[in-house]
Amino acid sequence: MELTAMKEQLTQLERELHAYGHAMGCLSFDAATVAPSGSSEARGLTLSFLSEKHYAALVNPQVRELLDGLWSRRDELDAATLRRTQLLREDLDELTRIPVEEYAAYARITNESSERWRAAKATGDYAVFEPLLAQVLDYSRRFAGYRDATRPAYDVMLDSYEKGMDSATLDALFSMLRSHLTPLLASHSPSEPPAFLSACCPVESQRALSAYLMQVLGLDGSRCALAETEHPFTQGFSKYDVRITTHYYENAFLSSMYSVIHEGGHALYEQGIADEYQYTALADGASMGMHESQSRFYENLVGRSAGFLRFLAPTLRKLFPEALDGVSDDALLRAANRVEPSLVRTEADEVTYPLHIMVRYDLEKQLVAGTLSTKDLPEAWNALYKEYLGVDVPNHTVGVLQDMHWSEGMFGYFPTYALGSAYASQFMHAMRRDLDVDALLARGELAPITQWLGSHVHRYGKLYPPAVLLERATGEAFQPRYYVEHLQAVLKGC
Amino acid sequence: MELTAMKEQLTQLERELHAYGHAMGCLSFDAATVAPSGSSEARGLTLSFLSEKHYAALVNPQVRELLDGLWSRRDELDAATLRRTQLLREDLDELTRIPVEEYAAYARITNESSERWRAAKATGDYAVFEPLLAQVLDYSRRFAGYRDATRPAYDVMLDSYEKGMDSATLDALFSMLRSHLTPLLASHSPSEPPAFLSACCPVESQRALSAYLMQVLGLDGSRCALAETEHPFTQGFSKYDVRITTHYYENAFLSSMYSVIHEGGHALYEQGIADEYQYTALADGASMGMHESQSRFYENLVGRSAGFLRFLAPTLRKLFPEALDGVSDDALLRAANRVEPSLVRTEADEVTYPLHIMVRYDLEKQLVAGTLSTKDLPEAWNALYKEYLGVDVPNHTVGVLQDMHWSEGMFGYFPTYALGSAYASQFMHAMRRDLDVDALLARGELAPITQWLGSHVHRYGKLYPPAVLLERATGEAFQPRYYVEHLQAVLKGC
Fold first, then answer.
1. Which of A4, A60, B208, B351 has an alpha carbon within 20 to 30 A of B468's alpha carbon?
2. What pLDDT shows up at residue B108?
3. Looking at beta carbons, which residues of chain A come within 8 Å of B45?
4. DSSP letter at B344?
5. What are phi and psi of B226, to 5 degrees?
6. Rounded to an integer, what distance in angstroms lies between the CA atom of residue A54 and that of residue A48?
7. What is the pTM of this model?
8. Residues facing B241 on adjacent strands
9. Which residue out of A130, A263, A340, A350 is catalytically annotated?
10. Looking at CA atoms only, how far is residue A215 from chain B in angstroms?
11. Could you tell me the CA-to-CA distances from A397 to A119, A380, B487 in Å, in that order?
């Protein structure tokens, strides 16, 4: 076949995969936002049908022949087409290596396991969940073997969320965090949370703040909608249609404020991917960690910075006059950067957050290696929370059952949260060479910052693996020390 | 093939068609409710892909063979399977008879025509729209010929929205309406609209009223969600997931109140279709007119009845204390049943509404017959509004350009609105034989009423053509006189 015709077929294939993904994404977004509670079974039928079609569109002999054909002529391909071919071949290989029956069984088991986890979390009864977790773990380990039997299972799992990542790199990151942070935290006595943090801020005013923040972030509002859900998230159907969500608590205005900035960071990444990559395999973030780096960049390095908070303070006072009456810029700054070890990851401050990840990293490494059994997991969890964060776990609901990830077989996912923060600090370090970041933040002028990230990170989509993108953007390989230094500075400042 | 296997294939086919329909429906609902404004082109790509898949799932030789095979053994089929086969064969025939190129060209032209109509409506410039309307009309006429060359084109069009309907039946309906209503209206002097109709009713209180009405209507809230859109509509993905929408105007609380009751009637129909018909070709209303009969039954025969309004009045006064302070039940009743000829169909009262339909019926019949040209349409429109409603049309925006239907090629659709009202009155007449309807309305006890409609209409879905369903439910063929009598009574009462 002519190369031109093959490229045309590749584009058609990607359009097809995109269309199924878009439809499934829309059904899921609808489910999370406005669908009536009793509609899930009916939607499940449609989702499962579309997911089969999506699978069949990729996993078939014609596609195999097309991708192998393109690969055999890889010297003639431009960089983008080459990478698209490579990414799709990887997906195809992965799906092909897992026997279809096991894949289906796994889907059933993770579905059941997620339900059991929900029930267990509600009552705190870990025993209800444990047998399912054991099964999910078993499948995940086996699947890692199918993917690559030559490497340790946990490294294969890490690689599936963060291409190229391994436990050696993460060990280095976490040991550096441990050695620099734990002594500092041990001698840190948290201040009392100021009363204004829990003062009543009407939801309508918080909605106005969200709209203002989206504007300050420079999100294209005609291509990004804000919805309300229990747990905030971002979903990008394409750069032309991104959704972010938040949750409003009357007595915690910072919660939604930082959700909007965090999800806004994800959305800016989606909106920044090059036009010519849309609807192709490149139209996504480079990796989970890289996507998280953008949300955390905006949330923590922009949103909690002294400059930006001082810029934002007058608007906050205008929107929440009763809550913020007499609150100084400095008091706001301190409140937004308060550090206090706690039990629940999603409510943790920036500094103690990676310690929550460290607990999970240590435990899932052992679970996958088989040196820790799912039966002994809660005890190990509680011990590590005591050791790393100095807190006692009162029950499993706020302990080992707090996150859904493991119930869905997502072993190796947690580290991407910490990696995201670390990448963000490395980007900031590099950006400071080109821009007077503090001056821009103080003026609330985020456009040059987003343009820098746009031209160094966003526009490339999945063109490069995360490690390559990081090195191209910052001029050096992964350096956890910028992150550690940043956290030390936050801890000293509060 | 075994009959059992063929039936299984039929079910699979319907599931597939349902799944594509569900996905496209979800994308459209999302577009109408929460999608960002700039996302339509990206969504268009996915919708067009899914629509091709939907088409290909039905229009192919295997399906033709299956449906013909089932049809050849129709004596062995149960009523539901027989009807499912028949409906799908009709769809297949219709799609097969129109050449694919013409179908695609038609889609492009109606798309352009809709856009032109929107632009023309905004400025009132009919000339911008006319050439496209002429093309759409031309295609519609040709397609009617493909469908059935032996009957007048307009009858074929009517039949596509209301199976079995023809212009002879409609001529009888409209001439009866004309002869009974126009003299009465000529001597009717409308009262001034009372001030409370446009008093401020906060949107939050109107939202509370919507929730209350959905409860009084007996809608299953776990399977029906309410959203807000510019124009109210109902969309049922299945009986397990129905969406209704409304629009709140601070100074017109009756507008949203009757939208919710009207769309609620559509939703009750969807929710009432038998479980065993779900995801099959039977899982829909019997026809456009029949669906409309249910919305209008609740809106007009329930919602504007003296009994129900008196039942509702205390709640309205509690929700809108400032607006309804000192307003008597009788004043509310008169306001909800005010009759005054006006320019715009969607804002018309119950009595003058069918005259708006009559104008469109007369005009589209002539357009399709070729006795009226699209160039002369505005003049003819204005003349008929003067003749039937006694009003002068000041500009085309509120005149011939007010509705989008013709721009989308929906010739023959308007009469279903009037038919719906007429069916509703015939159902009410029959229901009164079995139930003390007035006593139930006065107690706000709608369950027995909905149960009657459920067992006589809703549960059958598309099992029967509308005329058969009507006769089975009411014991007689279509009788427009119940509708005319009802409108006369309303007119006399106000």
1. B351
2. 87
3. 15, 19, 279
4. -
5. -110, 130
6. 10
7. 0.93
8. B238
9. A263
10. 14
11. 10, 15, 63
